[in-house]
Amino acid sequence: MAALLAVADLAKDFPLPGSWLRPRHVRAVDGVTFAIARGETFGLVGESGSGKSTIGRMVARLIEPSAGTIQFDGGDWLALRGATLRAARRRIQIVFQSPYASLDPRWRVSDIIGEPLRTHLDLAAAPLHARVTELMAAVGLDPAMAQRYPHQFSGGQRQRIAIARAIALEPSLLIADEPVSALDVSIQAQILALLRTIHARSELAMLFISHDLSVVSHLCDRVGVLYRGRLVEQAPTRRLFANPAHPYTRALLAAIPRAGRSRAASAGGLALPRIGESGCAFAPRCPHARPACAEAAPPEMVLAPGHRVACFRAGEI
Amino acid sequence: MTGALLELDDLHVEYPARRGTVRAVNGVSLRLERGMTLGLVGESGCGKSTAGQAILQLIQPPGRITGGRIVFEGRDMRDLSPEALRRLRGDRIAMIFQDPTSTLNPVMPVGAQIAELFRWHRSGVDGAEIRRRVVALLARVGIDEPERRVRSYPHELSGGMRQRVVIACALALDPALVVADEPTTALDVTVQAQILELVRDLQTERGTAVLLISHDLGVIGEMCDRVAVMYAGVIVESGAVDDILERPRHPYTIGLVASRPRIGQPDQDIRPIPGSVPDLAKLPTGCAFHPRCALADEACRNVTPALRTIGAQAVACHKAV
Known about the structure:
The complex is a heterodimer of chains A (317) and B (321). Chain A is an alpha/beta fold. Chain A has helices spanning 52-59, 82-88, 109-121, 125-138, 155-167, 185-201, 213-219, 237-242, 247-255, and strands spanning 5-15, 25-36, 41-45, 67-72, 75-76, 92-95, 173-177, 205-210, 222-227, 230-236, 301-304, 307-309.
């Protein structure tokens, strides 16, 4: 089956502050390639500055890539402009981390959830009201609260509002950028359960972005691991956690705090970002690095069906 | 000296608010022995940070401690004069906060900030000796080229490095107790692992007791000997960390443990706790957890449960077995 979303060699350069006379850039995303099938949940995991949110924003067309291609439903997603792009946006929706920043405080909940329906479908008042009621019920909110404002809701409830707005137009792909990171663990579990239910009920594919491996492993069919803008490993969830092949993935898994965790699991020192270097970005921290690792970027190799890793030494370590 | 290093006895902290009195800490008792690590775990607004601040008498007015005792090394902290408190803080008790950026002075080199502690608390130590100790501390917390780094400003360091400097400040005078409030929550997971390891090593080396306040059961499980679970200003369950994490008995702790997705188990059925935490100004009657609890009955709605011993732990629940 053809992929719903196919991202190839995606890159993003950002100008460094204070360099407008002689522009210098930092490459936040570098040669990222992955695909998401219809109805599939793909997780992107990485630490701060790994480029995971930048990828989500490029797929949502909130920022433009510096290089690479994005195919969506067989078409060139990056070629869309103006009115065509605006109309197409209903196919890909995004939920952000902060349910405080992403909802307009002066709008009633019914207006927030109803806005995409008005904009894209031009629904009349009665069907609009019916659809908003239906959506609120679907995300576990009491439709009687439709006339309230965001500040009258808790963080978890606000994230439900954001999710209701995002699924209102029945998109094919939902990008969820750290949707539960601002929430307490008991509320986080409620939102994860909600996302699972929505996913089970529809043909919705999901790009789930998070720093939290346990959340990603819970929700996703496949996971990609980002390090300094590069996708170092991707595999079906179970396989990735059972057989992590990249030294960074291993370090990340070993770093998860838990009772009885073995000591000295953390990898190497804290190397500062090395921009514009040609070798493997993880080499300065990698316990398995060899001189060759610093010279050229390791190409992706396939270890097993669907399990790809970018490491020269993946087969031998 | 006999007895625990730190003992809280029926501590109450309140904040007046327009919507009523916020009972942030509502009768908390706990004990921490010398050299041990006690975890205080709970979600936002459960009162765990307030309890930590109360120990060092850092509650900002209009908030105030309205009852209970805080006995540290045999003395009630509430009886100490401001001068005695100043001498104690940073010396016998130190605190580490979540955000190293707001803890450190942005316009002072990090070395000078550590040296200040010696000048305040160890007036007999001369400049050369202070400098030697500061460099040794920075080296000990894992900062490369400490002789050069003493002159660095906080903004020149990464988040992990700043938290190492904060730890160096906390341990400079060899305190008996460190209160660490979410010390690694702002850090990436690989950096967090390094910081936790550092704290553990230093603790073993120096015999420091740690009160670790965290929302993260994983961090608590890894670091602590004992743990107390807070909900709506009270301790609902406490005991040895393995007992609490493996055999939780309070419905809230059971829910908290069941809410955590476990790694590499995509088919795991996580069971969220329904509802959300109560407003501390409008606490439910009886057990504060009863509106979210599947086991709640008449007694739970009316009578506040006291901590009682069940198996190896103490549980404040009418229904727990």
